[in-house]
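Hello,

I think I submitted the 3-hydroxy-3-methylglutaryl-coenzyme A job twice by accident. Can you confirm which output corresponds to this input? Input:
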Amino acid sequence: MSQTPVGIDGIELWSGKLRLDLPNTFAPVKDEDPEKYTKGLGVEHSSLPDVYEDIVTMGANAAKQLLDRKGLTPDDIGRIDVATESAFDNSKPVSTYIAGCLEEVYEDDFHHANKGERKFACVSGTQSIDDAYNWIRAGRNRGRAALVIATDTALYERGDPGEATQGAGAIAMLIDSDPDIVALSTEQGFGSADETDFLKPNQQFPSVDGKRSMQVYLARMREALEDYESIADDTHSDDFAYIPFHTPFPGMVRKAALLGFRHISRGTDVESALASEIGSQPRESEYVSREAYEEAIRGYMDELKETDTYREWYETAIDPTVNIARMVGNWYTGSVHIARLSTLMSAVDADRDLAGEKLLVASYGSGAQAEIHAETVQPGWREAIAPINVDTQLEARYDLSFDEYERVHDVHNHEKDTEIEAFTTPESEFVFTGWGRMSERR
Ligand code: HMG
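Support: Only one job matched these inputs. Its output is below.
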């Protein structure tokens, strides 16, 4: 007997209300070619928080939109998990602050709900969904749904190479049985190792070895793909309509997608069709050493990325996944969930019916861990996705000058005691009112 599906039943997003234009505002001050950002990293804008926004207000605003859209109240929610790597409290989880905000506007409260905070860099958003999935599958949810909120202010030290990949925002997701949007697979693949390329040990901004962080991302992703392939039935390129990857910047996804395609095209008609052009994929058993095999793989990948077959696949299965990331930057824990949303929104725009089709979702967090699982798009997906107002939010952002950007970056740097006027006006939303009282709705 088949199990009732469990997965994502609703999604809402809240973008930081400021925007930094990378090619036109950031590049000239850094004396860089704008194409380094638009073509190299693949980013146009970063979303940044206004002075009255933080991870709590953005998370609470996204969650309020989601509960309202679904017509839910606190009594319908049995669990609130927040994924973040921008937490400011080592004791109380951020979910308690967010629940406190929401309780100001609903008649009942969340006293019955299990609240927590998940940490493993960017992969913790996916881990929170996993926790919710397991809780529902175990039958401990008493008919209630779980609220998962991934919220971050992904800021780097000024002058750090990561500065061009900043972002801020929250994505709220409702996890439930019989979901409207996607059902999660039971199969998962993992690649996990103790790494030190991206750290925030008791510090606000990360210490990053950017180039190494990219190699670590690819190494863990390869392991997770191999682990997934060892147990799953659907592992071929034809099995998946799209592959949303964790997107620190779209240029990283270009590298990850090539790796992904090599794996999921292995042993398929696609590999056979490509063989006359670039040969078959090297198999490890054909080489005298691991080094020789890896060298052969690199040569194969260099040729693969120039083929029409790969380019067409990339345009269809990958390009739509980075549309939002290009306009908002890295939202850390929310990033792969933005990639899924971007995918589904572009399918709505293209009038493509995805019901029954599969996504292969590839999450990653520094430190480091990659996770792969499949999702099946559900019949109600289009009605659930079409009303999400991402474009309206992104168009409404205030466009910062470089000088304004530096001042607001200082406001969000807790080591500096800086106060400036807000650039935008709150409109019936939760706002940060200072340490102690924290936030209220204005
Ligand atoms: P950089 O060193 O300033 O940039 O920063 P670059 O010189 O390597 O250039 C970037 C790309 O632009 C290169 O492309 C250049 O060739 C190209 P590639 O060779 O890599 O394909 N380029 C140009 N293209 C066209 N026209 C031009 C031009 N100039 C250059 N004129 C770096 C790059 C990633 C190091 C930096 O942004 C950084 O440190 N970022 C933060 C770390 C990061 O995002 N790492 C990604 C993997 S780790 C991860 O995803 C986890 C994370 O999300 C955190 C977490 O999990 O918690 C970060």
